[in-house]
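Standup notes, protein team

Yesterday: finished cleaning the Neorhizobium petrolearium set.
Today: ImmA/IrrE family metallo-endopeptidase structure.
Blockers: none.

Input for ImmA/IrrE family metallo-endopeptidase:
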Amino acid sequence: MSKFEFFGEPGVFQIGLRWTNDSELRRYRPLNHGWSVGDLTIIVADQNLTSSERGQSKQGHVGWYLSPLFDWLASNWSSLFQEEDFSWSEKSAAPAAVACRRAIARWIAADDELGKANYKAAKSWFERHALRSCSEGGLFPDIFIRRFGDAVEISWTSAPPFMPPNGFRFACEPGVARLPVSQVAKPLWNAMQWFCANPPLSLDVDDQRRWAEICEKIDSLRNISNEELEKAYVPEDVLKLARQVLANAGHLELLEPERREEPFLDILSPAIAMFGGVSPELNQADVGRLCDVMIKFQSGHDSDHLAAVVSPGLNSVMGSPHEDGYSLAEDLLDELRYLRGNPTWVDVRALAGDLGISVEELEFDTDSIRGVALAGEGFAPAIVINLRSLFNADEDGKRFTIAHELCHILYDRTRAKRISHVSGPWVAPEIEKRANAFAAYLIMPRGLLARNLTQVGRIDRYVAARIAKALRVNESALLEHLYNLDFIDEWDRERLRQEYRPQS
């Protein structure tokens, strides 16, 4: 038995591999991969995801056939490190290990066409991102890998494999980690190079051919183009249009990603980050408008005031999106000392202006774009409001959008220290939910609410309408916010909802 070969750092991501001997005669083993028995260990953030227990016995690795793992890595490389979006409508902020399994369970027995399509999409996504999809009956842990902005999300459960031995369990608790792309992709790439450079001993002619076929597939990844990688992150038709528009404008540099020697994109280009959050049906005119926005604000920089309050590296939600958004807004108002002058409402347009952020209003053809945030290295900070969006039908809605995009500018910058972001239904739900919570608290801070509620007894629709007018917010948004801040209970919220509901 050989020693483990380790790639990566256990404090971030590490994979360990070794070939082992199989006492079973070759003719009794699986035809395609029975030659590749070995041991595997995967460690994320110092947690061994392959550690297991069976009775009193404990083991830090799993032993099984390894060639299906490497074939899967080579076959799904672009998806693993570039595909962020789920292939079904996912409204939760759950990591992939939870969201994907929940989607499969929800639709596996569906007998309607939409449910069947959703099941097919979720199952296909599982096969591209779940380690167990390549286990071939082995005791592989339940690990999912996907892109998440300029990071890689690794999430896992402690769910046992299909038909495990009696008493077998994985010892690691469920979890999720968002890690730099290079610190996951590079160890896996090096592991694949190890596989190709160190075949198991004593392979027969047929098994040598099978090993060589996988190595050829791995080696072909060296020639994969940036555009091929980008298509897993951005809808292909949109990517093609953006490339044409930026080429005609002489600004293809906005589409150039940071490519390493290995076949992965460590940092997304501004255009790829921008268009990763749009509808696949976005038309040419709107692609052009978004490109024009990037070109217009290119070569600028943050004001000193904005730079002082930006908190990079928070693009991963720390707790619940709702709690994080409220906390970030409260901290910002405190840092800016905004409420110390006893304002009667929060003027977010003026606040953005004080931070040196331009606010522009454009009418797109699509209503699926709510707003755009642009800032960071190489860009002057800007917020664009889409007048076509129903969210921006009046000034109250526009103010909410400004506050929403401000959250992205302050807290959702990537490892490239910039943000180029379109807000809409195609963006990671947890990021949008946090920005919504931030916006709600920013324009309706607890201190102002408490001041308006002084000497108010029972809150009825007339009191709520007066407060909403004073704070210049939508009444329904105020109602939900009062409930979230415990000014009213669930019974009062439902009562007020009924009072606002039009009578037939």
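Follow-up from PR in the comments: The longest strand covers residues 37-44.
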